[in-house]
Design brief:
Elements (H helix, E strand, L loop, with lengths): L21 E3 L4 H10 L5 E5 L5 E6 H8 L24 H4 L6 E2 L4 H11 L3 E5 L5 E6 H15 L19
Parallel strand pairs: 1-2, 4-5
Antiparallel strand pairs: 2-3, 5-6
Helix pairs in contact: 1-2
């Protein structure tokens, strides 16, 4: 049986996603869109300040609502389409929502519970100073669980290790 408390984020992040996608808080909506297009498998962009401190997250759905807000017919109920709250917002800081995050010392179970309870596919990873250091997603959690089960059964499945260090970069 896999001990979800013993497996830590540092043991599994970057197995699939080598680095987080992020933009500076002053980036405009087009820069956010370009960041997402550069990493088409990811569904969010993290918003950071000058010191790489995590400020928020912009999901693909939120960005789409912003970009296509003028296509929403006036006859639709505003509560039904919360996209209208994004109309006129220009910067990443204005588009972002508060992030849910984990740290390298958190457990697989902690990450899973946060993602499951909030219906998230991934989480940013921050250090003790709240600086963005990586990302972890559901596929990485699943990969670790499967690898651990295979090892317990005496089979080698993937033999994974963290080989891709994250280096901060601005676009």
């Amino acid at each position: 049986m896999v001990d979800e408390e013993q497996v830590k984020i540092k043991d599994m992040r970057m197995l699939i996603t080598p680095h987080p996608t992020f933009v500076h808080k002053n980036a405009d909506a087009d820069a956010v869109a370009k960041s997402m297009l550069a990493e088409p498998l990811l569904r969010e962009v993290y918003v950071v300040d000058d010191d790489m401190k995590l400020l928020g997250v912009i999901t693909l759905n939120a960005l789409i609502k912003h970009e296509f807000a003028d296509l929403i017919p006036d006859s639709l109920d505003e509560e039904l389409f919360s996209a209208l709250k994004f109309v006129g917002k220009k910067t990443a800081e204005e588009l972002m929502t508060a992030p849910v995050y984990v740290q390298d010392t958190d457990s697989l179970k902690t990450a899973f519970v946060k993602m499951y309870e909030r219906n998230l596919d991934s989480l940013p990873v921050v250090d003790s100073e709240h600086q963005l250091t990586g990302t972890i997603d559901m596929l990485e959690l699943l990969m670790i669980i499967i690898e651990q089960k295979e090892k317990q059964a005496g089979r080698n499945y993937l033999e994974l290790s963290m080989q891709q260090p994250f280096h901060p970069r601005y676009m």
